[in-house]
Design a protein that fits this description.
With 322 residues, the chain is an alpha/beta fold. 37% of the residues lie in helices and 17% in strands. Helix 1 runs antiparallel to helix 8 and helix 3 packs across helix 4.
Length: 322
């Protein structure tokens, strides 16, 4: 049986306030939008993305042969599973696409529920996925743990939330690093990501469809490297952390159990999360229930400005009868 589809967003009308997405609530990055506006869709991009891979390689002090671009993190995860066949190890609860892509390709999924269990299952795994900070629980995995994993199997370290982390995110040598910068720059409607390999491996590029990135995805990945885009993100982070901390404090005052991440989101235990999410959606507020992560009693909420936070707290009080 395949994993359920990604649990984010819905087909309803645009909500007044959206806590379900972990996109930067200050985005889109205006420096990125400016670059996208200059992109010319009348022409194909370079099918090899030569200049883009050179830019990304220079930024990471790597070689272009070690850079692979893709149509978002999920597309690259599926390609990684196809390239490195065998059992896939995950540390639950985490991003459901790792297991979903593995099962879609007929690969066995090994599911650990603690770092110790994860280490014990490494001899059986051909590919292991970790997310740091982890989605949805927010852990930043220590370097010693990551080095132990990378030294024993092929590790994919998903760094989607690293640009938004309040604490440093260690990176071990020898891992495949997965970068999905859309959330940090507030442009989740555009699908573009890249992987940094520990050494050249043409299999990953050959498994991609032709022109896997359109001209806007190519422009986006180049734009995020510019000093202006990075400066904007540097200014945005403290605001997001302050909003997350204030939301956590307010929820605790209402009697909820809260687990803060190091990034721009948190978990809150609410009981029947799907039922509460539906009640909030009727009131124009979209939240992410964590059933797809195996946490049916928890909501994941992103850091949002004061007006959105107050609306959420008011709706929660209304649903709970004051």
């Amino acid at each position: 049986m395949l994993e359920p589809l990604h649990g984010g967003t819905d087909a309803g009308p645009v909500p007044r306030y959206d806590f379900s997405t972990n996109a930067n609530a200050l985005g889109p990055n205006p420096q990125v939008l400016e670059s996208l506006g200059r992109a010319d869709p009348a022409h194909y991009p370079d099918p090899a993305y030569t200049f883009l891979r050179e830019q990304l390689a220079a930024y990471h002090h790597a070689t272009p042969e070690e850079v692979v671009v893709g149509a978002g993190a999920s597309e690259l995860i599926l390609r990684l599973v196809r390239a490195y066949r065998g059992p896939v190890l995950v540390l639950n609860p985490t991003f459901s696409e790792y297991a979903r892509c593995a099962r879609a390709e007929g690969e066995e999924v090994l599911e650990a529920h603690s770092p110790d269990e994860f280490i014990s299952l490494l001899p059986k795994a051909k590919l292991a996925f970790l997310c740091s900070p982890n989605n949805p629980t927010g852990e930043v995995w220590p370097l010693g743990f990551l080095e132990s994993v990378a030294g024993r199997t092929r590790l994919v370290l998903d760094l989607a939330y690293a640009p938004l982390s309040e604490q440093p995110v260690p990176v071990p040598a020898g891992a495949i690093l997965l970068f999905a910068p859309n959330k940090a720059h507030g442009v989740t409607g555009l699908r573009a990501a890249y992987a940094l390999l520990p050494g050249p491996d043409p299999r990953l590029r050959h498994l991609a469809p032709s022109w896997v990135l359109d001209i806007f995805g190519e422009a986006f990945l180049g734009a995020i490297l510019t000093p202006g885009a990075q400066a904007w993100l540097d200014r945005a982070r403290p605001a997001l952390w302050a909003w997350r901390q204030r939301l956590a404090s307010d929820l605790r005052q209402l009697g909820f159990e809260v687990r803060e991440s190091a990034a721009n989101f948190l978990l809150v235990q609410v009981g029947e999360a799907a039922e509460l999410a539906a009640a909030l959606r009727v009131r124009g507020i979209r939240v992410r229930d964590c059933a797809s992560f195996g946490l049916p009693r928890w909501l994941r909420l992103s850091a949002q400005p004061s007006k959105a936070r107050k609306a959420l707290l008011s709706a929660l009080l209304e649903v709970r009868g004051g």
